[in-house]
Amino acid sequence: MSRSATVAAELGLKLVVPEHGGVPLTASLCYRDDDPYAIRMSFHVGMDDPVEWLFARDLLAVGMQTPAGEGDVRVWPAPRDDQDVLNISLSSPFGQAHFEAPLAALSEFLMRTFEVVPLGREGDFIDIEGELRDLHRWA
Predict the structure, then answer these.
(1) How does the average pLDDT of the chain come out, rounded?
(2) What is d(CA 38, CA 4) in angstroms, rounded to the nearest whole number?
(3) The 3-state secondary structure of 59-124, one letter per residue
(4) Which of 3, 38, 91, 129 has its CA 20 to 30 A from that of 17?
(5) Among 30, 28, 32, 31, which Cα is nearest to 10's?
(6) What is the pLDDT of residues 23-80, one digit of tens each?
């Protein structure tokens, strides 16, 4: 059985609440080479199970330079006067949340994921035969 490489980090975010400033909270980031296109962001918000969001690693990389994403997850850099923040917007049928995340910490996390799976080489880390076997098993 092969072992998966994982990159993990804890990240301090600010939940942007209009007219109330920001509410600090912590998110866990996780990247695994056996799911090379995805980043998982988990929030512990007082429930038994964390709230988890799954989004594309490329979305985060592009969003550091220019607005990226449509729908559930959007990412965009802060205005020029606040270069150390990355904005992340998450939407679901239950509501929407806007977070400000430290750009340096996210950039460092992203660089560590590129050390595990280089950008553009994600397909080399997917077991196509295994995925097809799993699909046939469930069909």
Answers:
(1) 87
(2) 14
(3) HHHHHCCCCECCCCEEEEECCHHHCCEEEEEEEECCEEEEEEEEHHHHHHHHHHHHHHCCCCCHHH
(4) 38
(5) 28
(6) 888 999 999 998 999 999 998 777 678 889 999 999 999 999 999 998 899 999 988 7
Token pair for 94: 């239950």
Residue 2 parent element (H or E): none
**20-34, 89-103, 124-138: segment of lowest average pLDDT:** 124-138
What pTM was computed for the model? 0.83
One-letter amino acid identity for 73? V
Going along the chain from its start, the domains and CATH numbers come out as: 6-138 (2.30.31.20)
Residue 47: the pLDDT is: 67
Four-point Cα dihedral 116, 122, 128, 134, nearest 10: 70
Q: Which residues contact 56 (CB under 8 A, 6 or more apart)?
A: 37, 38, 39
